[in-house]
Specification:
Radius of gyration: 37 Å
Number of helices: 9
Largest sheet: 8 strands, mixed
Oligomer: single chain
Strand content: 35-45%
Number of strands: 43
Length: 698
Amino acid sequence: MSKITKIVVSLSMGVMILAGVAVMPAQAASLTQAQVDAIISLLQSFGADAATVSSVQSALTGTPTTPTTPTTPAGYTFAVDLKVGSTGTDVSNLQTVLKTDSAIYPEGLVTGTFGALTKAAVIRFQNKYASEILAPLGMTTGTGYVGAATRVKLNALYGGAVVTPTTPTTPTTPTAGTGLTIASATQPAATIAVESAARLPFTKVTFTAGNDGDVTITGVNIERTGLASDAVFSGIALLDENNQQLGLAKTLNSDHKATIGDSFTVKAGQSRTMTIAGNMIAVMDSYAGQVAYISVTGVNTTATVTGALPITGAGHTINATLAIGSVTNNRGPLDPNGAQTKNIGATGYTFSSVKFTAGSAEKIRIKSARWNQSGSAATADLANVKSYVDATAYDAVVSSDGKYYTSTFGDGIIVDKGASAEIYIKGDVAGGSGRTIAFDLYKTTDVYITGETYGYGITPPTSGTGFAATNPWYDASVVTVSNGTLAVSVSTAVPAQNIAINLSNQPLGAFDVEVKGEPISVASMVFRLSAWAGTGSASTQDITSISLVDNETGAILAGPKDIDASAPTVSFTDTVTFPVGKKVYALKGKLGTDYASNQTIAASTTPSTDWTSMTGQTTGNSITASPASAITANTMTVKAASLAITLSGTPASQTVVAGTQNFTLANIQLDGTGSGEDVKINTLPLYYSHNGITNLTG
C-alpha cells in the first residue's frame, strides 16, 4: 500500500470514529476543534505536506480552500493569558505571528481555537526564547501556556510593528533610540478619593519611541497639584498597561514632587501607556473636600523628549465618609515562622505565607502579590518559584534586578465577606551555599486587593501577626543555604571484572562523587586495598602507579602512588577540587608479577574520616564528606593471560551427501573470559582426519 493510500485510509478511519459518518464539507463543519486537531495530527504523523494539511483543514471545518497571497501580519498586543480551549481574535493573532516561523508553527493554521497544534507551537516558541521566558521563572522546558512572561516576549517581537519572517542572523545589540514623544492619554474620570484607597488612577500618559531604536525610561517625574495637601497620599506609584506596579510607591518631597517607577523600555516605533496612581491614607477627615491632581512634569531618559508638559489627569475629591471594604492580615499557616537552614537541592519549600480575611463591608478580589527577595541569594540560586493561592500555582515574574517576584492571579481571587485566602510562595533551592533567602512583602500596596462593590483598591492594615508599620511590611523568615555537600558511593560504571598482571591502568575500583551547592576541594584522600595476599613475600606483593582518574575524560587527578602488601593503603595528598554535580572517579594501577590468578582486590574508603581538609570553594567553610561508613568498590579478580579452546557440540556427527557446498565441519570456540587481558591470535592451525576422503575442497 502506498504512503498516500495509508494516509487516506487512516484519515477515513479517524473521521469515521470521531464523527460516525462519512465526512463531506457540510458535515465536517460540525466536528469539534479537538477532533479536527486529532485528524490534522494524524496527517502530519504520516508526513503530509503543508498544502495537503491546509486542504484537509478546510474540508474538515467546512470552509472552501481559496488560494491567497501570503501577507505579513500587522502588529498585535497580547494582553490576556491564553491556553488550550481559548478561542477568539487573540488566539487567531497568536497563530498568525507564530506561523511566521515555520520551525515554530509548521502547520501554520489560523483557526481562532487554541488546540494541541497551537500548544505545541507555543512550547517551541518558549523553548526558543528560554533565556527570556523560562529562565527567569526557574523553568527549563516550555509549558504551552501563554502567561505573562510569554506575552512580554510576544509583544516585544510583534506588538505594534509589522512582522516579517527573516533569515536568522547573528544577534546584535539593539540601537538606543534618540527620540521619545510624551502625550496625554484618555484620562480617568474624576471621582472621590476615599480613605485607604489603593492605586487610584489620577493621570495617564502615553510614551512613543521614535523609529530609530528602543527608548529606556528610568523614571517619571510627577508633582501634586490642585488645592489639596500632600499628606492625603501615603504613596504614589507608576502602573503599566496590565495595572502592575513598576518600582516602589514614593512619597512627595517638600516641593510636592517625586520620581516614580522602575526602568522600562518603549520599543522602536511603538507606544506604551502608563498610569500614575495614588495610595490614600487611612484617615482623611482633615482634608475632606480638597481636590487633588497629580501632574507629570518630566521623564528621565537619554532620548530627546518632545511633547507638551505638564500633563494633568483627573482631579479627585477627598472623601472621609464612604467606608470601602477592608481586610485583616496575619501570618499564614504554612509559613515556616522562624529561621531555617536548607540544603542545596531542597524542592517545593514554602518560603513565606500570609493570610487575608475580607471585612464585612464588601467582598474582596486579590489580584496580585509582589514579593521582595531581600536575602543575598541570586536569581540563579532559586528555581521553580511560584506563588500559590489556596494550593493553586501562579507564575512569578522576576524584576530586572532579581529582587522582586510578581504573580498575577488571573482575573483575581474573590474572597467572600468574612472568608480568608492564604497566599504563599514556594520554590527550589538550586544553589547559593552560605547565602540567605527571605521573601518579604515590602509595602502594604505590594498585595493588590480591590473591593467588589465599590471597585476601589484596598490598602491592607499594618497590624496582624507578622506585620509591621515599617518596611518591610511583612518580614519573612530567613532561610540560610547550607554549605556544599559531598557524598561518596559505589559506582556501577566500573563493574567487577578480571584484571591483568604487569599491565598499567588496570581498574582497581570506582566511586561516584556527588557534590551539591559549591565546588569542594579535598586535600587528602585515603583508600584501602583488601584481600590481596599472594604467592610472593609481603614486601614484593606490590601495586604501582596507583592514580585517581576522572573516569569520563581519563585525566589523572591524584597520584601516581606505589604501595606494597605490608601497608595496603594508598594516601593521596594532591588537592583535588570536585565540581558541582555527580561524576565517576576510578582507581587505576599496575599489579606486580608476584600476583597469581584468582587473587582478588577490593578498594574501600570511609569518606567522613578518610577524606580530610575539605573546603567549600564558595563559602570557605570546612566540610565533612559522607557517609560515615566504609564504601567498598566492586571486587576485581586477578587473571593471567589465558585462552580456552574447545570444540563445540554442533554440528553433530552425521552423513554428508557428496557435492554439498559450504558444509560446516566443526565449530571451534575461543574463550577469553578467564583472561586478565586481551589475547591476540596470530595463527590457528587446524588438522582433520579424512578417513579415506581425498577430494575435500574449499
